[in-house]
Amino acid sequence: MSKPKSERRQADNEALAVGTLMRVSPRKLGLVADMISGMEAGKAVTALQFSRKRISQDVKKVLESAIANAENNHNLDVDRLVVVEASVGKQVLMRRFHARARGRSGTIEKFFSRLRIVVRERDEREAA
């Protein structure tokens, strides 16, 4: 016997995509996530494509995945999608060491982040 299916946490006009183990610090990823939050989905993809930040291509993949989820899984109109949430969280922390003087060592912390993008279909009332 399997456990019962859990209820959907998003509204009917929302779709979600999550990117895990993104090799960038949450602080740097937050800059790119704040840039696209609140934008229309098409404009956000274009902004990420021409952004000079290294991680913007990975963010673009997650956003395109959210758009594809909205279109294929939830039958939402792609032209009316808006990025309503782009939240960033900590994932894991790789610790490395760097040899220092007099037999000592210094730690190097390599951060990983997770990104959660929620897109929502606008109503006709909101579009006007």
Give a short summary of the structure.
This protein is an alpha+beta fold and 128 residues long.
Throw out a few tags for this protein.
128 residues, alpha+beta, three-stranded antiparallel β-sheet, flat, ribosomal protein, Ribosomal_uL22_bac/chlpt-type, Large ribosomal subunit protein uL22, rRNA binding, rRNA-binding
Radius of gyration: 18 Å
Mean pLDDT: 94
Number of helices: 4
Strands of the biggest beta sheet: in what spatial order? 1-3-2
Return the structural class.
Answer: alpha+beta
Number of strands: 3
Model regions low in confidence, pLDDT < 50 over at least 5 residues: none
* CATH H-level superfamily: Ribosomal protein L22/L17
- What order do the SSEs take from the amino end to the carboxyl end, as H and E? EHHHEEH
CATH C-level category: Alpha Beta
What is the third-level CATH name, the topology? Ribosomal Protein L22, Chain A
Share of helix among residues?
25-40%
Write the layout of secondary structure elements.
Blueprint: E1 14-22, H1 26-36, H2 41-49, H3 56-72, E2 81-99, E3 105-121, H4 124-127
Antiparallel strand pairs: 1-3, 2-3
Helix pairs in contact: 2-3
Can you describe what's shown?
Part of the 50S ribosomal subunit. InterPro entries: Ribosomal_uL22, Ribosomal_uL22_bac/chlpt-type, Ribosomal_uL22_bac/org-type, Ribosomal_uL22_sf. Belongs to the universal ribosomal protein uL22 family. Keywords: Ribonucleoprotein, Ribosomal protein, RNA-binding, rRNA-binding. With 128 residues, this protein is an alpha+beta fold. It has one domain (14-127): Ribosomal Protein L22, Chain A, CATH 3.90.470. It is 32% helix and 35% strand. The chain is built from 4 helices and 3 strands, in the order E-H-H-H-E-E-H. It has a 3-stranded antiparallel beta sheet. Helix 2 packs antiparallel against helix 3 (56-72). The longest helix has 17 residues, at 56-72. The radius of gyration is 18 Å and the shape is flat. The mean pLDDT is 94.
